[in-house]
Design a protein that fits this description.
This protein has eight helices and 16 strands. The chain is an alpha/beta fold and 328 residues long. The protein has two domains: 186 residues, L-asparaginase, N-terminal domain (Rossmann fold), CATH 3.40.50.1170; 114 residues, Rossmann fold.
Length: 328
């Protein structure tokens, strides 16, 4: 079999943590690699590069952008058959999504992690890393964008989310399901992702002045106004159901748009897209009339990163909405 080469970029997370007197934490002296995957085929050569040694909540948007720029450089080098990123689980889906929308896609990129540290029973890191490496160099990997591999499942970066705080099967793609599976020595793809979002070509730059507001009964208007007063250029509103908010939140959204702030509306539901079918004050159709745009079925934290990248690329709200396939 022809020799294949894979690059592993480690950023930290539970997959590298150890038990200390105050709980699990990153080691003071990180090891050469995240974990030893074991059981790799002889035809696979793996090189490791450490970028960060951080717990997942410390992965800021600027660090995510730095990771994506490194991946883009390595992608253009043509040296690798596949690349794997090890990452903490709390923000993995955000880093993976930013990579998915910004990379060319000429080299497979797979994110993986662990729900249990190496010092716990039933550690899952080595198996996840092995599955990610095999997926990254699989001959069946074609134009899937960035994917996430945990617990033997392969998920699209745009659709995957962490659904459980501690279970090894925490990652799922509600409403879509996995793209495929890692079955011992085989990588089996069952479907391909369609309708992926791509940023315009160019070096990834983020404008982090994007707020995120989650609505609840009687909640959201003050928070939207706070984002605008704080200088945010865009605000993502996680609305109810089909994309509906309380009337006072709709008023705050209209004020934000009038002041030049882009407002994107998503749903706090796991599944389904937002759509302007309700015309009452605060309904999705009403929000569109007030100048907000509906952001399809992407969750708020991913739309936030998307808008950061769009603003960094010099795109306005209408152009950003068009990239999502949503009318502005």
């Amino acid at each position: 079999m022809k020799t294949k080469k894979a690059l592993v970029i480690s950023t930290g997370g539970t997959i590298e943590m150890s038990q200390g007197p105050a709980g699990f934490d990153m080691p003071s002296q990180p090891s050469e690699g995240p974990v030893e995957p074991g059981g790799l085929p002889s035809w696979l050569e793996v090189e490791h590069r450490r970028l960060f040694s951080l717990p997942s909540p410390s992965m800021t948007p600027s660090r995510m952008a730095g990771l994506c720029r490194l991946l883009a450089d390595e992608e253009r080098s043509g040296r690798w058959d596949g690349m794997v990123v090890t990452h903490g689980t709390d923000t993995l889906e955000e880093s993976a999504f930013l990579a998915d929308i910004s990379l060319e896609g000429s080299c497979p990129v797979v994110f993986t992690a662990a729900m249990r540290s190496p010092s716990e029973l039933g550690v899952d890191g080595p198996r996840n890393l092995r599955g990610a490496l095999l997926t990254s160099v699989s001959d069946g990997f074609h134009n899937f964008g960035t994917v996430v591999v945990l617990n033997d499942e392969i998920h699209s970066a745009a659709r995957v989310t962490k659904t459980y705080t501690s279970n090894v099967s925490a990652f799922a793609s509600p409403g879509y399901g996995p793209l495929g599976f890692v079955d011992d020595d085989r990588v089996i793809f069952a479907r391909a992702p369609l309708g992926r979002v791509h940023l315009p070509p160019g070096t990834l730059t983020l404008d982090e002045r994007v707020g995120l507001v989650r609505t609840a009964a009687g909640l959201g208007a003050r928070e939207v106004r706070c984002c605008v007063a704080g200088g945010d250029r865009a605000v993502v509103v996680e609305a109810f159901g089909r994309g509906n908010v309380p009337p006072d939140v709709a008023d705050a959204i209209e004020e934000a748009v009038a002041s030049g702030v882009t407002v994107a509306v998503t749903s706090r539901c796991f599944m389904g897209r937002v759509l302007g079918v309700y015309g009452y004050p605060g309904g999705g159709a009403d929000l569109e009339r007030r100048g907000a745009f509906l952001a399809g079925d992407l969750p708020g934290h991913k739309v936030r990163l998307f808008l950061m990248a769009c603003l960094g690329a010099g795109l306005d709200g209408a152009a950003s909405a068009a990239l999502l396939g949503s009318p502005a």
